[in-house]
Each structure stands twice: as structure tokens, then as C-alpha cells.
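Check these lines:
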Amino acid sequence: MIKKILGLLARLGKIEYRVGENIVGFYKNRVMFGKIEEDTIYLLNSCNGFDRIDVELLEEGDAFTKKAQEAYSLIG
């Protein structure tokens, strides 16, 4: 799952990812805009919280990329 997500996120621009014990975080300018925690994907929302993303969106690459772009764009 991580490899697929990284492939889709690469379209957005420069990102970093960090792997922790129970989490993988995706960052723009050192600010987390997405994460995988307990096999669940979350993306940043406009209220500075994280929305759960349906894993099935990964199969619809463009739909996931659009949601990720929205989260990515929230970071200055």
C-alpha cells in the first residue's frame, strides 16, 4: 500500500515520508498532510484535522490523487 501511495503522491511535487513504529507520515515542508495508521489512510482537511480515506480510492488512482492534492495544497 505504501509503495502505491508514494507513486500517486509523486505527482504532487516534493514530499517526504517518515516511518514510525505504528505510522507512516507524508510531509510537505516538514508539515504532515497525510498518514497511514493501523492500515488506514488519513489526509489533512481544512480544519487542520485528518479525514479517513477509503482504501478503495487507491484503485481509482485519480480520485485518490485529487484528495491528496487538496490536502497537499493546504500546506504553505
Summary: The chain has one domain: 2-73. The radius of gyration is 11 Å.
